[in-house]
Amino acid sequence: MLSLRKLVLRALVLVAVSLALPLACGGPRYPNCEKDDQCNDETHKGVCVRGMCAQCRDDSGCDKGKVCKDGACSLPEGFCDGAHACASGSCGGDHKCHEAPAASLPPVECDDDHLCTGSAHCENGHCVLPPQGGPGCTSFDAPKFDFDSPDLQGQARQVIERLAGCLSTGSLKSARVILTGHCDARGENEFNMSLGAQRAETVKGILISLGVPAARVSTSSRGKLDAVGTDDASMAADRRVDIEVR
Predict the structure, then answer these.
(1) Distance (Å) of CA 74 to CA 16, 46, 49, 63, 139
(2) N or C of the chain: less Cβ packing under 10 Å?
(3) Is residue 71 part of a domain?
């Protein structure tokens, strides 16, 4: 039977061995740590934050465009790009989602009780003269759009390209243009006002990309206020952007 002295010596040896083991193994085991080196090996890469290995300590430890949150690199709230779509609105150049601005109605110059004079006709609440352009620059069919969408239909882009040529280098190069978006009668008023504004902005964006100065293009929306369609064919005519050259 072991003496009390030998038992005490054995206990002290066991304590010493247990204290030496972590040092022999290089310190705390992952994901516990005391310094950054303990968080990096062939299978792990990170930094030591409050005694635990993490992916990052601050934003500088993340790839460009990401932020450090709770020790992990992630995209900032509200971020959008080609792979991360917006729940609503559109993705801007700053990679943030932007709602379409609420469209304001232009002042009403004419209606059924207030007729235009001369060769002008009433369109979208104001008197419109025929474009005073040369060949190919006297009339522009309203571009049509897909249902519930700001995407152009069919040959609509050709009309916009012809308009851009007339405004940039043709007989309308001193004129300005007003684009008014429309929708068919389906859906809520607020939604359709926003959709009409998006359709007008789609046309404006194409004109600007083709060299028309932005200062010469203005947009507005009538939503479904002027919708008259009752079937697929007539409702398709309601989904348009009216082009007014002044």
Answers:
(1) 44, 15, 17, 9, 52
(2) N
(3) yes
Q: Are 191 and 231 within 8 A, CB to CB?
A: no
Q: Same structural domain for residues 94 and 140?
A: no
Q: How many domains does the chain have?
A: 2
Q: What phi and psi values does residue 223 have, to the nearest 5 degrees?
A: 55, -125
State the Rg of the chain over Cα. 34
Nearest in space to 236 (alpha carbons), one of 245, 227, 225 = 227
Statement to judge: residues 52 and 159 lie in one domain: no
pLDDT digits (tens, 9 = 90+) for 18-46: 554 444 455 688 889 998 888 888 788 88
> Could you tell me how far CA 50 lies from the centroid of its own chain?
38
The CATH number of residue 136's host domain is 3.30.1330.60
pTM for this prediction: 0.51
What token pair was written down for 87? 């729940």
